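B., you asked whether I could sanity-check this one before it goes into the benchmark set. Here's the sequence:
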Amino acid sequence: MRIIAGLAKGNKLLSFKGDQIRPTLDRVKETLFNILGDNTVDSRFLDLFAGTGNITIEALSRGAEEAVLSDIASDSQKLILKNLHKCGFGDSKNWELLKMDALKSISTLSAKGKQFNLVYVDPPFNANLYDSCLTKLSNSTILEENATIIAEHFFKETLAENYGQLKRYREKKIGDSCLSFYTINQTQ
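And here's what the prediction gave me:
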């Protein structure tokens, strides 16, 4: 697991031993950021279920203006902080780590008036959290008008085409993973 491009390119990230966390594979991450392209530059990036911090650190490396990571697991929180420091972002003021579950993070960020144009949702594949998380995002005030929400999921799991005001506009299968891209449906 490494940072693919940008300021921290080539840095190897620390990970968990064993299979307690399933970090996003480099090829999935590379596909994601190739699809996002220049939209990452100057973005406000939210990473729910941040795990190792892999996706957010890649976004920061590629020029995200602001990033918020959320993870409830204390082991993940410690690893995220180590990886941010390892990649040179430890003292940066453009990221925040929320030490709480994803649904509470959405409520907390909404109460603070925060908004994001890129949101990454990657809960544990077997946790059955996609519907509740995407629905909560749809009903929140944290999404900018043209926000992109990306859900990484097991390729055999089918996510709904719509979650409230969110509408899926693209799916991309990569190995055992699938990326589903949502945006706000402007016709509702």
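One thing to flag: The mean pLDDT is 93. Otherwise nothing jumped out at me.
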